Amino acid sequence: MSWRDIAHKDINDAGRSKSIWLLVGILLVLSLGYAYVHQYLGDETFEAFVNGLAGVMALVVPLLAIMLGYKSIVHERTSGSLLLTLSLPHDRRDLAVGTFVGRAVVLLVPTLVALVLAGGFGVVLYGTEGLAMYPWFLLATVLFGLSFVGIAVGLSMSTTRDRWITFGALGGYLLLVNFWGLLHTMTLLILHRFDGTVLLPQNLPEWAYLYRLLEPGQSYYRLLEVGFDGQLASLYLREGAPFYVDWWMGVLLLVLWAVVPMLFGYRRFVRQDI
What are 49-60's pLDDT values in tens digits? Predict the structure, then answer.
């Protein structure tokens, strides 16, 4: 018995959950729906379609990942089923890893299916220029999804208080998806005595590029710039941008967003009573 058994159980339970089938439906509707409406919203090219679809995923994938993971372990603790799980030949590390893997599979399989179908629809509507890099878009989306699964499961291990976890999940989503750019702007203005010229790309301090790239969505967009010539992360491509905001930094930051919250949550988890 190992983390694989816990992940397998998580996936099997998900297959019987109406909420998961609702998740599949939401992803299909959003992906295929965007593939159709893009022709009214932007340039009718495949690259422009992928850039637009990435914007949709940047909002939806974090929300779904947090919903799937933020009560994944604390629910077992409060319901008492965790005692049964750990009475079997599992330890807490198996539970943490298995839960992460299971929730990741539950999120990413429907996401990839929806994106593959949307990509096929996009080829029909917008042509094949840029299609060769579509697998890179899928890989970037996988890394992006994993980062938020790690955040959610790590949060679920960190405390047994439902209210704290709920506020943490909501606050984490708002900060990392909606308000990081505002936090970045306010930090620069405060440090430079509200001199607005510091916000101009040519005046940004080098550390500010990395600070902005710390947002998971920005790291996601930075990866997409490797395969698609869009404007999602053009800040990091301009002359004067430091070398360490290249695409590999996007990969590194997304991995860290997946791993660090898990380690922090696990450290608290092993110190707490069940």
Answer: 999 999 999 999
